[in-house]
Amino acid sequence: MVKGPGLRALPHCAGNLSMSDNDDFEDQPPEKLPLDSWHRNHGARMVPFAGYEMPIQYEGIKAEHDWTRSHASLFDVSHMGQLAVSGDNAAHELEKILPTAVANLPEGQMRYSLLLTEAGGIIDDLIVTNTGPHFALVVNGACKWDDIAHLREHLDDDVTLTHFDDFALLALQGPEAADVLEALVPGTADLSFMRAGLFQWNGQHVWVSRAGYTGEDGFEISIHQSHAAALADALVADERVKPAGLGARDSLRLEAGLPLYGHDLTLDTDPVSAGLGFALAKSRRQDGGYIGHAPSMARLEDGGTASRRVGLALEGRLPAREGAKVYSGEALVGTVTSGGFSPTLGHSVAMAFVETERAEPGTQLTIDVRGKRLPARVVPLPFVPHKYVRKGAS
Amino acid sequence: MPRYFTEEHEWIDVEGDSATIGITDYAQEQLGDIVFVETPQTGTELAKGAEAAVVESVKAASDVYAPISGTVTEGNAALDDDPELVNSSPEDEGWFFRLTVSDASELEGLMDEAAYKTFCEGLD
Q1: What is the dihedral of CA A53, A58, A62, A68, to 10 degrees?
Q2: Per-residue pLDDT tens digits for B74-109
């Protein structure tokens, strides 16, 4: 009846952000990330996630969430896969796999992209960056081994796929992130959203991207694992920065309307119904040449899909979580794919796939939570406005 | 007034044939920020071990089970507007519900505060 851990199983289960994220990894004990002891020393509660022991929270999810929206938070996202494709044909080879215009992606620029099946289902979502020497891909931690297999299968042998598994990835997110990082790593404040570059910190190379998963301005910093703890120390030495865990990361990305693979995006979802048509580069829609092109175009051209990913605003605090059914009157019209209490808005919100006829903002629906029908209104995403610092904006 | 504790991290205050039930400080700490509590309706007859309440944290929904059998006399209405009371005052203002004790023998074998403290230390 009730999702999630019962108090009965509390010592083992409480704290699992989502049990399914670790399903594939249950047979093996979780691995430790480079900052494992750093997290424990900072009071983190560690939980298994994506095959790693990860910090779900330090002082509390809501406090960390609010701090990120008002100051700056440090997230360790080293579980994510940091991959690179290099070689003369790298852009061409990636264009066989990604629906992105890789070949004309300028150096230092990043794009949101997808790995698709032949049927146009979503294998993973990722960020691709032209770093100059190679194309970097940052993929989801829980998917990275499958992604690597998929890339190996489809990339030609004349390009090289590298897995930077000895690099940590730190995300600094929040309205004060830019000032904090500029003081430590001069030059980073000149990046705009979805731009990246190589910088120096403490004699070390750091690859800094102005991007993130919270809806706030912020950065992701790739650094060799041997120096990650020192950088984390330097960041939290600034009183504007506190560490934040996976729990806040999840509530922040939900408010930002950003989908989470394995929940809002799966093999059974496609870019069009998921509202990710922007990832299907306009310049490649005609000629295609990538896996999943034809079914994606058919969905675009047929005026859409049977269902759409929407935002749902609830009235009260009772969360409607993944799997909850969405109704229009007595008709079942969809399913919640992620949901929870929004600390910023003070009420619950959810993302759901609903029938396209019921996907217009303003549509009144209900969500079944333990037999109660909670009123829910379709609203545009994001729930909380993005604060990205775009090029040309003052 | 004796206070009993269960291995499911509930506390029970017994006064005559009335029992007040909540979750412990250890439990709220494990659950994290509480955003919603659904308490049982007055008059609900609960068997020991039955689902009695649901507590929603930022992370997940969790059941609270009736630690003893009885008839619900009151749910804590203060939790409707202020579920954070479970975090800030779990073993006092953040109580969940009250019931009439239908079988006092069910209290036998529950832990006292010292035994519960030892129990929790064994979990970490």
Answers
A1: -90
A2: 999 999 999 999 999 999 999 999 999 999 999 998
Of chain A, the percentage scoring pLDDT greater than 90 comes to 90
Nearest chain A residue (CA) to B62: A6
Mark yes or no for CB contact B38/A318 under 8 Å: yes
- DSSP-assigned letter for residue A356: G
Question: Is A17 an 8 Å CB contact of chain B?
Answer: yes
- Look at residue A109 and tell me whether its pLDDT is greater than 60: yes
Which residue of A1, A7, A17 is in closest CB contact with B64? A7
Right CATH number for B3-121 from 2.60.40.1470, 3.30.430.20, 2.40.50.140, 2.40.50.100? 2.40.50.100
Give mean pLDDT, residues A291-300.
96
A contacts of B9 (beta carbons < 8 Å): 7, 10
**Would the CB atoms of B61 and A4 count as touching at under 8 Å?**
yes
Q: Tokens 């003893």 map to which residue? A: B68
Boundaries of domain holding A61: 7-80+166-255
Q: Give, as one character, the DSSP assignment of residue A5.
A: -
Q: Residue B15: beta bridge partners?
A: B18
